[in-house]
Write a structure and sequence with these properties.
By secondary structure, the protein is of the alpha/beta class. It has 38 helices and 23 strands. One of its GO terms (molecular function) is DNA binding.
Length: 947
């Protein structure tokens, strides 16, 4: 049948079908050979249902399933960063892609894809051809990028929601008709596809601009007329970026297809071919349904595909219950809980299902001082509620008090109802960054357990690919942009705390938070086993939440008098250094001004190699100054000046960041400093410490070590420190299998002296300390992929000499070079590296060209080692509370490879052996290291004495 007037073309977005199917079903494997087939099973069910429904309704005369050929298209050449931040397909999905094409052909549907073009371009081209031929088109997809095609006989169908999308629906979504969608997208950009757009301009603002100016070209031409300064400056500065963005979002409707519309005529499947495919896939239920439909005998002896994470399945095509249902976000439907009966009803739902998504709203990001304002709950997708508890009318009276807003339960009554559910071991509490909410509830006498954390699920699966905040995850995995918090509390000087927000607005905002969290949990939970990180999440991430929360709440005592004295000493030394620096410069200048310093060094003192940045000022970063300190022969005065500036900057940072700032971080209620640890802050699994950051207190300088004197124990107690000795070198010796290093560790030798002896052929006894220092620099540097340039800077030696050291090192320890090469090759092949404990760290830039690839390569080499060290200390921290339960002791801090405790004087000698055993055995039984782990212990009145 030739395509023409009266014909109806269906274009199915095949890639969308695949991913919906993949996330809708638990992992399924073909029993005969273990091949993953879950996505294929879901895909076949969706196609079979489509055929059944299409034949009974507005039947198509022509149809095609259109797929993406690969991620490399003409858009990648136009803008290399296009879709660069998308994670690679899951391991178990990759082998299923060709099977979905085979399934499409088994159903006798046209299967189309094209190298260099996206599926959307093929759809756009076919839609144009069909429209010009007088036919109608239905695009079966919910992809917003296809909405630019709607109109003139083309509509879309979201099959999962049974929702038809015409021009009115498009305009409701974008604020403009379909023909202007690309203009709005060009301005707003797209974080999912990494389309840059104009920074700070979202869909709503973009629509307003296009409504006023007509199109992007006119807008950019008249950008100088825009009254709002920020918008005007943004559009003038990013005009070229917007133009590129428009090219990226515009579908190519003239793709050079090698087939015609006539080739897409609908044909019935060959039942025997279809059943043969389904039989080979071991889809028993669907095979039986097809056999019944066509009156054929069902093939025998086909085993059912099974789920590797559950009991053997009786069918490979069950209903997609585990996936988040396709329920639209509707904040206006969220319930405001104002009485005990309503709250009890919601809590009963949690008791019935066994799960509850929960989120708190407070007056501050500091959990130790924040007031609880409200709690949001969700029991299913789209079913969320907000419980206001601390909202005020907003107007402070003369005494600083505010009148409570009406329609709120008494907090004590609400918490009394919440407590049994939040502590019920049979109900899973689901949160996003659950550690924050855990501490808020703990301050009200509630110990929340058990928990799941969507932020940590994302971190376990996608470390290195993107951030793990709720808003970003919602846009990436739910295709939903949450309500911005600024719409409620404002920004800058006009910003208010959440208790001043109207309850109806808070209900929509906070209810959405709980709803999003619940949907993320539904999405991520079945993905964990597919990504092979379930063990990482269950043993390294989730159990750490209450451990860290307890540590943070305990806090550490700081002697502010010691800090004040240090600040004065640092100020005096800085003043002395400023005098010396200005004398060396031959003129007074602001030592803290990089611009003035650059002019002194490069213009005034004639130091070569100065480079100016965009502002026109010379670069005077630490690396630049460190290089200048080596110019002792040619520019001795400048070398000395640079060294003194580095000393001045270190003192300045210590003073501002620690001796001054720490005094302001003392909690007025507890008299202690309560740092906050970010579990998902570093790609390798290392914890990050903030407010204040206690991870970066220098330990190599005398001044840095002195700061630890201010961290003290109360009367009758002591600070105890246990620190892993050279843990990363020990892990390197194990994973790279270096006999000499392993033997040295087993015998308890000085590893740096041994390395120097091996490299330079000198005896360990009576070794020159400088030679040992050089070996130490290489030992630690090689873990981080150090270059000759970096080693030369560290040791203040010529680069050639540094390169000779590195070459000699690899000659003596070839296994290390092999480990590095193999690790980089694996990262390039897989897109990630793994630690000994299964943690995955993605390396998205490893295959790039240019300077960035070197950074990615070094990160890939270091990540398995640093990550394994981080995993080991996490395992120790998780085991520690139970091990020291009977002692008068508590864990206060973790700083890289060190754990710090506060202990009663009588229990110091009991704690140290217990904690040491936990730390030294933390790798067991998962990994049996070929070298021993050693934890060195010390105790004292202060951290400095204990370390």
């Amino acid at each position: 049948m030739a395509f023409g007037t009266g014909c109806h073309l269906h274009l199915i977005d095949g890639s969308a079908f695949i991913f919906r199917a993949y996330h809708a079903l638990p992992p399924l494997t073909r029993k005969s050979d273990g091949l993953p087939v879950g996505a294929v099973a879901g895909f076949c069910n969706m196609v079979f249902r489509y055929i059944e429904e299409a034949r009974n309704g507005d039947a198509p005369t022509h149809a095609a399933v259109v797929f993406d050929y690969s991620s490399k298209t003409f858009r990648s050449d136009l803008y290399p960063q296009y879709k660069a931040n998308r994670p690679p397909p899951p391991e178990d999905l990759r082998p299923q892609f060709p099977l979905t094409r085979e399934a499409t052909r088994a159903f006798n549907l046209a299967c189309k894809e094209m190298d260099g073009f996206e599926a959307d371009d093929i759809i756009a081209t076919l839609a144009r051809q069909a429209r010009e031929a007088g036919g109608r088109v239905t695009i079966i997809s919910s992809d917003k990028d296809l909405m630019q095609l709607v109109g003139g006989g083309v509509e879309m169908l979201d099959a999962m929601k049974n929702l038809r999308i015409g021009p009115e629906e498009v305009e409701a979504k974008f604020g403009v008709p379909p023909e202007r969608v690309i203009d709005v997208q060009a301005l707003a950009g797209d974080s999912v596809d990494n389309v840059p757009g104009a920074p700070g301009i979202g869909i709503k603002t973009a629509a307003q601009l296009i409504q006023e100016y007509g199109d992007v070209e006119t807008l950019l031409a008249r950008a100088s007329e825009i009254r709002q300064p920020k918008r005007r400056e943004t559009l003038l500065a990013y005009a070229d970026q917007v133009r590129i963005s428009k090219k990226l979002v515009t579908l190519d409707d003239h793709a050079p297809l090698d087939f015609t519309l006539d080739d897409l005529e609908v044909k019935d499947p060959d039942p025997r071919e279809l059943m043969d495919f389904l039989h080979r896939m071991e889809f028993r239920t669907l095979t039986r349904r097809v056999a019944e439909k066509y009156g054929l005998a069902e093939p025998k002896a086909a085993p059912a595909a099974v789920s590797p994470t559950a009991a053997p399945a009786t069918t490979a095509d069950p209903a997609p219950a585990p996936a988040a249902p396709e329920v639209p976000f509707a904040p206006e439907t969220y319930v405001c809980i104002r009485d005990g009966a309503t709250l009890t009803d919601w809590l009963d739902r949690a008791r019935a299902t066994g799960w509850l998504a929960v989120d708190t709203e407070t007056t501050s990001l500091d959990e130790m001082q924040a007031d609880l304002v409200g709690v949001s709950l969700a029991t299913a997708a789209g079913q969320a509620a907000y419980l206001p508890l601390g909202h005020v009318k907003g107007g402070d009276d003369l005494f600083g008090a505010s009148e409570p807003a009406e329609g709120q339960m008494p907090m004590a009554e609400a918490l009394a109802l919440l407590k049994p559910v939040l502590e019920d071991p049979a109900i899973l509490k689901i949160g996003q960054n659950m550690k924050y909410d855990w501490k808020i509830f703990a301050r009200h006498g509630i110990r929340t357990a058990p928990i799941d954390d969507t932020m940590l699920m994302s971190y376990a699966m996608f470390a290195g690919l993107h951030g793990h905040g709720m808003d970003a995850l919602s846009e990436e995995y739910l295709a939903h942009k949450p309500i911005p918090i600024k719409e409620l509390i404002g920004a800058g000087k006009a910003q208010v705390t959440f208790d001043k927000v109207a309850i109806d607005k808070a209900t929509a905002y906070s209810g959405e938070d709980a709803d999003i969290t619940f949907r993320l949990w539904q999405t991520f939970r079945p993905m964990l086993p597919r990504a092979h990180v379930t063990t990482v999440y269950e043993t390294l991430e989730r159990p750490l939440v209450p451990v860290l929360a307890e540590m943070e709440m305990a806090g550490v005592k700081v002697d502010t008098a010691v800090l004040a004295r240090m600040s004065n000493v640092f100020a005096q030394r800085m003043a002395g250094l400023e005098d010396e620096i200005q004398t060396l410069a031959g003129q007074p200048f602001n030592v803290g001004s990089p611009k003035q310093l650059g002019e002194i060094l490069f213009d005034g003192m004639g130091v070569p190699g100065g480079e100016k940045g965009k502002t026109g000022a010379y670069g005077t970063g630490a690396d630049v100054l460190e290089d200048i300190t080596t110019y002792e022969d040619t520019h001795p005065q400048a070398a000395k000046l640079a060294a003194r500036v580095l000393d001045w900057r270190q003192l300045s940072k210590l003073k501002s960041t620690y001796t001054d700032a720490l005094q302001t971080h003392v909690n007025p209620e507890t008299g202690r400093v309560h740092t906050s640890y970010s579990i998902a802050g570093a790609n390798t699994g290392r914890l990050a410490s903030t407010d204040p950051n206690l991870q970066n207190i220098p330990v190599r300088s005398d001044e840095g070590r002195k700061i630890r004197e201010a961290f003290v124990a109360p009367e009758g107690r002591r600070i105890v420190s246990l620190d892993y000795s050279q843990i990363e070198l020990r892990i390197l010796a194990h994973v790279a299998d270096i006999p000499a290093l392993k033997q040295a560790f087993l015998e308890g030798q000085d590893i740096h002296a041994m390395t120097a002896s091996e490299m330079f052929g000198v005896p360990i006894e009576g070794m020159d300390p400088m030679i040992r220092r050089q070996a130490k620099a290489i030992n630690f540097g090689v873990i981080y992929g150090i270059s000759a340039f970096g080693l030369a800077r560290n040791l203040r030696i010529p680069r050639k000499e540094a390169q000779d050291f590195i070459d000699r090192y690899f000659q003596r320890f070839p296994g290390i070079r092999s480990y590095m090469d193999e690790t980089v090759a694996a990262a390039k092949r897989d897109g990630f590296v793994s630690t000994l404990f299964g943690r995955r760290i993605h390396t998205p830039g490893i295959n790039d060209k240019g300077p960035k690839s070197g950074n990615a390569r070094r990160a890939a080499i270091n990540a398995p080692i640093q990550g394994a060290a981080a995993d080991i200390i996490r395992r120790a921290m998780i085991r520690m509370p139970e091990a020291i339960r009977d002692l008068d002791a508590r864990m206060l801090l973790q700083v890289h490879d060190e754990l710090i405790f506060e202990v009663a004087e009588a229990d110091v000698d009991r704690l140290i052996p217990v904690a040491r055993d936990i730390m030294q055995g933390a790798a067991d039984p998962v990994v049996h290291l070929s070298v021993p782990l050693i934890a060195e212990a010390g105790s004292g009145h202060s951290w400095a004495e204990a370390h």
